[in-house]
Amino acid sequence: MSTAVSTSVEQIRKEFPVLHQEVNGKPLIYFDNAATAQKPKAVLDALSHYYEYDNANIHRGIHTLAERATSAYEDTRKSVGKFVNANETEEIIFTKGTTEGINLVAQAYGRKFLKDGDEIIISQLEHHSNIVPWQILADQTGAVVKIIPINEKGELLLEEYRKLLSEKTKILAVNYISNSLGTINPVKEIISLAHDAGAVTLIDAAQAAPHHPLDVQDIDCDFLAFSAHKMYGPTGVGALYGKRRLLESMDPYQGGGEMIKEVTFEKTTYNDIPYKFEAGTPNIADVVALKAAIEFIQSIGYTFIHDHEELLLNHANKVLLDIPGMTPYGQASEKASVFSFNIDGVHPFDIGMWLDAKGIAVRTGHHCTQPLMDWLRIEGTVRASMAIYNTIEELDIFAEALKDIVKKFKK
Ligand code: PLP
Fold first, then answer.
1. Mutation test of ligand 1: which of 33, 127, 156 has the most ligand atoms closer than 8 Å to its C-beta?
2. Residue 386: its pLDDT value, please?
């Protein structure tokens, strides 16, 4: 799997042990990929291989296992650097995930450089992870958070965004792809406009990494954060890309082992990037397995991923839109494989539970985007988010299951 180019979804499915089970007496259909994706054998093998053969703490030991663990950990850094097309490997910092990456930037950059009256622009589409860290920063510094509005299709209103930009704008932070609606945002243009205003830019790429090639030099973002678990890798690990110049100007995020050059009780000097931002023993095994997830995606290729997921989204629109009482949310012209909806007269939680009884896993609720749900004037949606291993047949079963639920509730 790691080297062969796979062209068959059937072959890809074989790589995912978890998919081959029954749930509540039915074959599992997993449509909760935007929450977390399932893991291929290569990732599971990388994890167990690490613990079976190489486990040691990194950077400090001179014994063979410590050297092996260190080189596996640092190999992933190189791999992530290439994955996002960073200029230098040192621009990659390992984190717990997207949330920690954004908090790191808010605290280590924002707290140092923002002051009373400065402005931070985010959008109506953001996940709580790209809202709350900026609110905390605003409370700490007196900065103000401004919101890019959206249209009915769930697209950012760029003309309104232009009006928000001024010399007061210090940070622009938006997602690449919306987790609730699937909107793919024109981040290159958004970043360029923010740079013209003199702002620093952060891209939340949590939902982009599994679906869309990342190229930090092309889009020219200053920071970009993503999580391994949404791109077929393990939970509890992710990466933050930051431009060297900015990372070097920032204060450390946390203090502890590994992030220092020298400690005395009088004064501590900090390590170089990226280690300055990696205090304490990191999540070594999961970092090592992230490399296997990247290789898995590369073995399939984003072109195949894009084409297959587009096929799934088109089919979802075909079989789901005419279900009685169906209200879809998010009809952006550039959209990832997410189908968010409600059905008149049935609570999303009830739909989720009835689907689960049929072995179908979807997400229900606000999807950590409460301000977006408020804008839509709803409590939440049912969200089917599709991945590379999902099939047309699964969507057909899903559509039939929804029709049964509608019939049941209309009785
Ligand atoms: N941003 C977006 C768009 C997301 O979808 C998510 C997770 O759902 C996050 C941020 C947070 O990711 P994590 O919980 O892996 O830190």
1. 127
2. 98
The owner of tokens 């399932």 is: 38
CATH code for the part of the protein at 9-30+301-409: 3.90.1150.10
- Tokens 């791999």 -> residue: 79
User: Which letter does DSSP use for residue 231 in this model?
Assistant: G
Say yes or no: CB of residue 295 within 6 Å of ligand 1.
no
Pocket test for ligand 1, best of 290, 368, 369, 381 (most atoms within 8 A of CB): 368
pLDDT in tens, 32-69: 999 999 999 999 999 999 999 999 999 988 999 999 99
What pLDDT digit, counting tens, does each position of 169-227 carry?
A: 999 999 999 999 999 999 999 999 999 999 999 999 999 999 999 999 999 999 999 99
Q: Is 112 exposed, middle or buried (0-12, 13-18, 19+ CB in 10 A)?
A: exposed
Task: Tell me if 227 CB under 6 Å of ligand 1.
Answer: yes
Residue spans per domain, the chain: 9-30+301-409, 44-298
Distance CA 379, CA 385 (A): 19
> Would the CB of 179 count as within 6 Å of ligand 1?
yes
CATH topology of domain 44-298: Aspartate Aminotransferase; domain 2 (3.40.640)
